[in-house]
Specification:
Elements (H helix, E strand, L loop, with lengths): L12 E4 L8 H24 L15 H14 L6 E5 L6 H11 L12 E5 L4 H14 L6 E6 L6 H18 L7 E6 L3 H8 L3 E5 L12 H9 L4 H14 L9 H14 L4 E6 L5 H15 L1 E3 L5 E4 L2 E6 L8 H6 L4 E7 L27 H18 L4 E6 L4 H22 L9 H14 L1
Parallel strand pairs: 2-3, 2-4, 4-5, 5-6, 7-10, 7-11, 11-12
Antiparallel strand pairs: 1-12, 8-9
């Protein structure tokens, strides 16, 4: 296989698009020229190593001072009695952490990883969810040292997050009194209302660099501090992201997977393909898909372009899970409107994969599964859908992870963030603001005043 044109079979991530995406050398060359100046800007941002530009998130994985400081904070707060980390946040303050946690701990984390703290995500104002969180604190937490609450809000004024924190803090305070304060860490912008109030109360604080937006903050304290508490190898995330950042700063498309993928996506969008289907063939990556959904939606959906002209640009991201969604969505994808560009994401995970017995309890129902591992069966399904796409003339690309790990997930997320930056520039929009999000927030505040 090729890593974006480079013959490297041992690359942790392979980006494959040749012969399956509707793109040619002329398209890539044109995209290279259009993005050359912006790629130069991103290289200057990396060389400067500061956090003065919106693109500065690319510096987090290589910032040794920041990494050392965060690792020290994790070590300070992680104790042998810690059993639960409650993350109170929403959107960019929550999705990245949740994605990485669920990708590596899976859906049975309650029964596995016995020695590692479990993570609980309080991410919306759902009455059942908040009631369950209160009940959990009241009946399952025996000592304050068993729990740490990390409230994450970049602005410090997110309605859902503040409301949820106040309720959960109240439950913790009623149970443990003043000891509750020591079990709280706030992560926010320095100088935000939250920062100032927490500082006045002498609470623990972690900083998100002001220029880094929430959806680009997964490798900051916002994303990795709670994962470090849960015994993840957060240096692995940084290493993978740093490795991918170097690749994605190259000027030549065939060497830069983020550049190439952005050119492919923009080219298809210009042809009327407005749906971006992210097809994950590992169910544990479903939350990674949710993270990317926010990244693309908030970064690309724009009413106005960089010149102030009304354009209403937008690509709609969807998440599909293989092979589950082949039984609910394949008919639409293969037979419906050709308005979708698909990217398949897959890690075969063949090591220690369970096998179907050679002697079946119900022989004859399905042929040729005896003795096959579940990885081999999924491989057959994965290649089967790709062949079906080719025969039906549907465009797609692939990202292949040879395994799901901190390193490969760090690579994937850095790739998608940098790809999004390039894509926004090709479409002529700002990848870093989200002015229309304020519409619902403003209306919500007005309604709350009247209640």
């Amino acid at each position: 296989m090729l890593y974006n044109g480079i013959n490297d079979k041992h690359a942790p991530i392979e980006f494959i698009y040749q012969d399956t995406a509707d793109v040619n050398s002329v398209d890539l060359s044109s995209g290279e020229k259009e993005l050359k100046e912006y790629a130069g800007l991103m290289n200057k941002v990396m060389e400067g190593g500061r956090y003065d530009e919106p693109e500065s998130s690319i510096n987090l994985p290589s910032d040794e001072n920041f990494k050392k400081s965060l690792l020290e904070q994790v070590k300070k707060e992680r104790n042998k009695e810690l059993r639960y980390v409650i993350v109170v946040g929403i959107g960019g303050s929550n999705l990245g952490t949740m994605a990485l946690y669920r990708a590596l701990r899976g859906r049975l984390d309650v029964f596995l990883h016995a020695g590692d703290p479990k993570m609980i995500f309080v991410d919306t104002v759902s009455p059942p969810l908040i009631s369950q969180a209160i009940d959990f604190i009241e009946n399952q937490i025996e000592k304050p040292e068993e729990v740490l609450i990390n409230m994450i809000s970049k602005s410090g004024e997110t309605t859902e997050t503040v409301a949820n924190f106040e309720i959960i803090y109240d439950a913790l305070k009623k149970k443990f009194g003043n000891k509750a304060d020591d079990r709280i860490v706030f992560t926010t912008d320095k100088g935000s209302k939250l920062w100032n109030i927490a500082e006045s109360k002498k609470m623990k604080l972690l900083e998100i660099p002001q220029k880094i937006g929430g959806r680009y903050s997964v490798f900051s304290a916002a994303g990795l501090f709670p994962l470090g508490l849960a015994n993840f190898n957060i240096e692995g995330f940084w290493n993978g992201a740093q490795e991918m950042a170097k690749r994605c700063l190259r000027y030549e498309a065939y060497e830069n997977p983020a550049l190439t993928s952005a050119i492919i996506t923009a080219g298809h969008y210009q042809k009327g393909i407005i749906i971006n289907n992210n097809f994950f063939f590992n169910p544990e990556l479903k939350s990674v898909g949710k993270w990317y959904t926010q990244l693309m939606s908030e970064s690309i959906g724009r009413e106005y372009n960089l010149e102030g002209k009304k354009v209403n640009v937008g690509i709609t991201p969807v998440v599909s899970i293989g092979s589950t969604d082949l039984h609910s969505m394949a008919q639409l994808y293969l037979g419906g409107r050709k308005d979708k560009l698909t990217q398949f994401i897959y890690a075969s995970q063949k090591d220690n994969a369970p096998k179907v017995p050679t002697e079946l309890f119900m022989p004859g129902l399905v042929e040729d599964i005896e003795g096959k591992s579940v990885a081999e069966i999924m491989d057959a399904i994965f290649y089967g859908i790709k062949i079906a796409y080719i025969k039906n003339g549907l465009p797609f690309s692939e990202i292949v992870m040879h395994k799901i790990s901190e390193n490969t997930l760090g690579q994937y997320m850095q790739l998608k963030m940098m790809e999004t930056m390039y894509l926004a520039r090709l479409l002529g929009v700002n990848a870093f603001d989200q002015p229309k999000v304020e519409d619902y927030k403003r209306e919500t505040r007005e309604i709350l005043k009247k209640l």
